[in-house]
Amino acid sequence: MKNIKLILCALGFFVSLSAYSLEQLSDSSLSRVQGQAGLTVEQSQLINIGNLSYTDDGNSVNVEGLRFSSQTDPNATASRTYTFDVLEDGGLKIKTDIKPTQMHIDGIRINNSGASFGDLTLNYEAITDFTIRGMSTGGLEGNFTTGISNAELIWNTNGYAMSFDNIGYNASIDNFTLEYDVTDNTKGFLRTGLALGMDNFNFSFSTGALSLGGVSLGELAGNLALSANAQIFAGGRLGDEGLTFHSQVNILADPANEVRFTDEGNSLLMGDFSGALNLTNLTFDVESDHLAIGFDQMDGSFNAGRILIGDSLRPVGSIELDFLLNDDSVNNRYNRLQLYPGIRQPDFNAMPTEIKSYAQSFYAGLGPASEGLSMTTQWNLANAELSYIDDNRRVVISGIESYGSANTTIDVRDKKIAIGVSDLVGSYSIDGLRVGSKTAPIQGGAELLLSLEVFQAMDFDIDGFTEITAGGISGGGIRIDGDYFFNNANIGLSVDENGEGIWATGVNYDIHLRDITFDVESDGLKINRGEQWSTMDIANLRWGSKTSGRSLGRVKLERFEQNSSLAVIPGGAGQVCVGATGSTEAACGSAGGRWEDRGEQGMTVSLKAAFANAGLTTDGSATARNRLTWENNRNETSPGSGEYVNGTGTQIIFDNYSTNDGLGTTDSNDYGLQANLNIDVYETKVLKKSTDALGDLGDELIYDDASRTDFTYVTSPSPAQKELRPLGFAVQGNVSFKELNIGAVQLKHPNSVAQTVFYGVVMQNLDLTTNLTATPIQ
Amino acid sequence: MIKIIIIFATFIYLPLSVALEPLAEEEMQQVQGQGGVYLSGDITINDTGGPLNNTADTSNPAIWQKNCTTISTDVRCGARIAVNAGDGSNSGWLVLDNIRGRFSFEGLTLTTRTIDSGFDGDGATFNNDVLEIGLPNTVSYGDVSYTLANSSQARPTDAGFQQTDIFSVNINGDVSLRGNLLLFPTGNP
Predict the structure, then answer these.
(1) Range of the domain at B25
(2) What single-letter DSSP state applies at residue A692?
(3) Is position B173 within any domain?
(4) Which of B52, B90, B97, B116 would you mutate first to test chain A, the one with the most A CBs within 10 A?
(5) Which of A233, A457, A680, A704 is least enclosed, having the fewest CB within 10 Å?
(6) Structure ipTM
């Protein structure tokens, strides 16, 4: 009863903030009140709060112009009804029926900052059912259901809006508990806090459209069931005040769990997921000009049993992710997020010249008072293990580590979202692969990930500026324009767990993307690359260490493509005849081939690269071409430095290579260079390469059991033994072009005009098919 | 992308110092004990013609529109490479024409390793990393064919096109390849 009083007092306090209009009740209305148990409160409210502040160690977050009103008239009331019933077990049941209401915030500032996060509007209606009762051990328990419908969330910066339209949200908690009895001493003294428990928290959400300027990017929907515990304490990470949370979340194994993005009726879906998430010392503090959020550790797992890309009948496979993010004070790597109101522009003068003008153009028109969101981020991923499972065959990308920091700005502009990232500085690496199971020995072979343009390791320093517009090549979808620069990066192409291997070092990579569209279609994900030009300048291609390994010299790759495309299609190669031609197992075998049925799952990547002839880019901002340059015998910057001056050596140049439809460079370029890769995880035939005590030349490597740890060599494996062949990536690839033209092959000495070796190379009518299985070697 | 790795390896093969290294049996065993990639499979060129032979694609020039099956002998069903090593428009083209066929292999390995011993003492002196291409024991050729020719123009569709075939080759059978190719930078970068 004491708790019920507290709730009523809190409700009374909340009610006291409101502005009311007294409405006359009819006799019939009054009779209904008389005829029911409990208490019904019908309320018409118009709430205007000029400024609502939260103060932490003297710093304030100010919510300005908070208003609850009618959706149609900000000066009119909205109505809601509260029904209170006291239950037989002493619990209090509160039912709330909120008629269409608008919540609006003019702006959120920190210590009255010149800029705000922008204004927010939420239109909604809701029905909530809330039951609460006292616990014999102290505290409160109860259950909760809510349904929000016809909702719309609008974020507006500098006069431009982004909206989530037609939001629906339903949630229920079978049982929750709230107790004030949990203790914590992470700040060096004992403190008591609130313990919140939620058993079987089910929720679903949907948005009719995520819109920019009235054009939809697509629809987002999901279902999730979880149980969770959280502990909340007064006092943050900085100063005396603030908040600290610990939480333990268990995502329940429920086939209905899913997240779905839908574009024009076609969906990207990740479903049937489960997992866990544990957070330690999640803190919130208000500082002089920002909100400070951070955690000491976040670990967990995430399993998605069903992944669909467009085609609902052809799953791609499943993934499992285990991860650990934690603070590393020894190496000064932390997990922190700082949120600033407004747009904090980078120091343009400190930027590389290659990206400086693009950055200045990106932020042109914005000033100190411009609305938006700025973030400073740090992360430290201590370890992650990512499994991909295709027809029950597992490959684990093992030992993923990453750390770094970045500055980011986000604001809404005319029909677009603008995301600026500067000083994205950090590193990542992958130890290797495990095949068969999570506990199988770690192996080399992460080079295989190059097929997905994932490098094995990278040290990076990136500035990048992206504009996202609604609308793909058809209907909804996403369009991207962006400019990016990688400054002095090191890229591991084939690296062992000690960091030794083949490295591209001192890489300056300048990338420009225009009119890149993403659409989900009935048969897969389609990316149309309207125009892109880039220069990758590798100062040294090194063997061994990335700092002291021997260098092959400088490699510079310039690219210019128009109307290239990429499609990711569910399903792999299916049935394949390797080593011969045959459409059936019998025909393949009689022709001397090996028949492989790689199953229904897997993935197909279909690429079209339309290399353009040298010329101006569409926006006229640059002259671009396709050119490969290899330079060596350069002058050293200083004797023994191991660094060399570009342009002082001898170069071989493959200049102005391009594709066309068969009649030369003046012809159309619709076909381009096409590459289709069907990717599966499959058993691979691995033969012994010598005769010794372990077996004879040509014997097959067969694992002893499904753990794939120990193996023996077998001369003629049985069908059961063939199931225990090493697993690897099976790639059925096809590369074709009508014409690939190289304008000239040249040699160039320093301070001289390039001399032409070949005045042209014309390659035509190629269709090259490969059936390769690639297995990591232990 | 596995193909790209191979193409990349082929590309870097050209300018590098390459050592064809006979390996002892015990050294070859160690290939299994190292990181890297083991490749098996086949590579087929223009099994049923190329994209210019697609008769359903009406944008293709008439000279290329052929019905190319696996047993077709039409000279336009293969791939074609024309190189101008003269002085541009005043010279003819060296052509590798009608390229077709299948290569099958088991056990091509790609790995990086450090050489700091062996090679009659040279390994300790070398003490550096190499990219090792472990050759497959056997490469099978199936109807691999090409024609070497001279041509007046780069393309069969170009005005005034004339071509003189010098010889044609057709290969069937197995080639035994053993040992490793070691690739490493040398000289002044």
Answers:
(1) 2-184
(2) B
(3) yes
(4) B52
(5) A704
(6) 0.84
